[in-house]
């Protein structure tokens, strides 16, 4: 079988030369085992973070199949959104963000999202976001967030972290909840970014900020899949897949996703 191997640990943005395509011999099947052939593979931001922590050079690249319940549990269990509230989500046109916005609409909330291109912003409006803007072209992020919701935000589903999060946290309403899902703006940094710091807003507005891993709810997977499938079949949740053809193009698909080239879920068709 073919496997992508991590040739060299990533420095900053991953490069195609950091990977090697190898032929590996699969172990013989034991009694009771079965061999599955992958049809689609997922490329995800966590692969950038975990590669440094769990892999050594020469290891086969980590990865999983496609299924992500992150939006469902993060919004319901961490943000604990209520009807009538205002929800903010960034990286909103991606796999997680686009579902967060649509679930918040189903839950009776006003939804504000931002993404890194005008096409993505148009897509967000098409799938029901109340307000959407391109964070790369606005003059001031602070102003854009204020314009989208002058009263501030009850829930903030943060996929990006860093400077964006610091600015958004200052615009939370009293008792607001922040779900720290991801920090993609920091994943490729060789040198950690510095402040600004958010503690004063956290104290004065009595905010709650909680990080989470979706694996916390692995025992409720079936519930999440059933709920999402029902909404997809009813047309209440729409999805888009950015399909890259060919296993040999997996590094390019992974790097492209980190650079924002994907709309919706980035997958590789083997
Ligand atoms: P996406 O499909 O959202 O793809 C990543 C997107 O991030 C890109 O398309 C790009 O969109 C955006 N992005 C990249 N760099 C930056 C930046 N510097 N600033 C702002 N946006 C940026 O990926 P996923 O939906 O799979 O993941 C979204 C987030 O959720 C990630 O942070 C990931 O780590 C996290 N996650 C967390 C899980 C958990 O259990 N806690 C599980 C799964 C995902 P754009 O064009 O808008 O810039």
Automatic annotation (TrEMBL):
<dbReference type="GO" id="GO:0047522">
    <property type="term" value="F:15-oxoprostaglandin 13-reductase [NAD(P)+] activity"/>
</dbReference>
<dbReference type="InterPro" id="IPR013149">
    <property type="entry name" value="ADH-like_C"/>
</dbReference>
<keyword id="KW-0560">Oxidoreductase</keyword>
<keyword id="KW-0963">Cytoplasm</keyword>
<dbReference type="InterPro" id="IPR045010">
    <property type="entry name" value="MDR_fam"/>
</dbReference>
<dbReference type="GO" id="GO:0005737">
    <property type="term" value="C:cytoplasm"/>
</dbReference>
<dbReference type="InterPro" id="IPR020843">
    <property type="entry name" value="ER"/>
</dbReference>
<dbReference type="InterPro" id="IPR014190">
    <property type="entry name" value="PTGR1"/>
</dbReference>
<keyword id="KW-0597">Phosphoprotein</keyword>
<dbReference type="Pfam" id="PF16884">
    <property type="entry name" value="ADH_N_2"/>
</dbReference>
<keyword id="KW-0007">Acetylation</keyword>
<feature type="domain" description="Enoyl reductase (ER)">
    <location>
        <begin position="12"/>
        <end position="268"/>
    </location>
</feature>
<dbReference type="Pfam" id="PF00107">
    <property type="entry name" value="ADH_zinc_N"/>
</dbReference>
<dbReference type="InterPro" id="IPR041694">
    <property type="entry name" value="ADH_N_2"/>
</dbReference>
<dbReference type="GO" id="GO:0006693">
    <property type="term" value="P:prostaglandin metabolic process"/>
</dbReference>
<keyword id="KW-0521">NADP</keyword>
<keyword id="KW-0443">Lipid metabolism</keyword>
<comment type="similarity">
    <text>Belongs to the NADP-dependent oxidoreductase L4BD family.</text>
</comment>
<dbReference type="GO" id="GO:0032440">
    <property type="term" value="F:2-alkenal reductase [NAD(P)H] activity"/>
</dbReference>
<keyword id="KW-0379">Hydroxylation</keyword>
<keyword id="KW-0644">Prostaglandin metabolism</keyword>
<comment type="subunit">
    <text>Monomer or homodimer.</text>
</comment>
<keyword id="KW-0276">Fatty acid metabolism</keyword>
<dbReference type="InterPro" id="IPR011032">
    <property type="entry name" value="GroES-like_sf"/>
</dbReference>
<dbReference type="InterPro" id="IPR036291">
    <property type="entry name" value="NAD(P)-bd_dom_sf"/>
</dbReference>
<protein>
    <recommendedName>
        <fullName>Prostaglandin reductase 1</fullName>
        <ecNumber>1.3.1.48</ecNumber>
        <ecNumber>1.3.1.74</ecNumber>
    </recommendedName>
</protein>
